[in-house]
Amino acid sequence: MKVSLVMRAVGIGAVATVALAGCGSDNNSKGGNGGNGGTGSTPAAGCASGSLTAEGSTFQQAIEQQWAAKFANQCSGAQVTYTGDGSSTGIASFGQGKVDFAGSDVTMIPTEQSAANTACGSTALTVPVTAGGVAIIYNLKNVSNLKLSADTIAGIFDGSIKTWNDQRIKQENAGVTLPPTSIHPYWRNDGSGSTKVLTSFLNALAPTEWKLGADKQIAFPVGTGAAGSSGVVAGVKQTDGGITYAEVSYAKQNNLPTAQVKGTGSYEGISSQTVSDAIGSGFSISDTGNSLGGSLDFKKMTGYPISTVSYVLVCSHYKSASTGKLVKAYLDYALTTGQQQADSLGFAPLPSDLATKSKASVDTIS
Q1: What's the burial of 302, exposed, middle or buried (CB within 10 Å: 0-12/13-18/19+)?
Q2: CATH number of the domain that residue 128 is part of
Q3: Which domain holds residue 128?
Q4: Span 288-345, pLDDT tens digits
Q5: Is there a contact between 232 and 186 (Cβ–Cβ < 8 Å)?
Q6: What's the burial of 84, exposed, middle or buried (CB within 10 Å: 0-12/13-18/19+)?
Q7: 189 inside domain
Q8: Cα 88 from Cα 58, distance rounded (Å)
């Protein structure tokens, strides 16, 4: 379902549209939380009028809605619409020139980069804007504290572990009464950055068990496919024994528990701190110039081990100067004041050095 919101973004809908009202910059706001999140007290860029359309990652949808709503308090004569329909759709639409920017949890492959460059008429940039954990969300009667290793998660999603009282799950959850309920996985049937992040994690840390590869779409042999994070989480909510993967805000909104996950270290739950620790230890930039696309090394991650940065895809030089000005203003806000909103939504502020690099990249947009 697609929901259009004007003046205020509420909840998780597939579309967030915010008509921006008011003016001025938030000169008194300070970005960040502790050692994370942006560039201190630097205010967002000056306002611009016009409208922007964007689509892509459902992972970052909640924070895009929040940013748009808050940005409405400082800029007049502008409108930002973000449609959460999956990273693959966002990348494709951006490469076809259908949207002004896209959200994605993965970097573009060379053919996608080439299409984006052509659509922009300039080099397309990949810029980190937020970070978060891909939560393992489940619904199991009378079980609210669950621990799962990479090997066990792989077994659940490849179908080799079929019931919740399987010996492999029991060994990881001493003292927890696990019922013989059948496991019913829900997985994304659209092109999803969250799927790519999860399967890359399993590829790296459960290579003996996981043989299905890592991509935005996977032929899962068991369970049920659904579109978007909201689709898979809705399936889990109505299914005793259900399990899926999605950004943690979807678990919070549906009152569903999330598992502690073990990578190379100990079992870790999702928090702003554990995600920031993971990004700080496992993310590195591989692009050059003002593009900041990078890679995740799950074997090096400390903290919550299924963590990722989430990007925006933008043009370095827009064909319309007014569009470039508004994109720059909106993303400057997101990377400064907007970063301090991350924790309350289940995201993590970007590590401060990465946020500084992202803002410097955005500031070159014209």
Answers
A1: middle
A2: 3.40.190.10
A3: 15-133+308-362
A4: 999 999 999 999 999 999 999 999 999 999 999 999 999 999 999 999 989 998 988 8
A5: yes
A6: buried
A7: yes
A8: 11
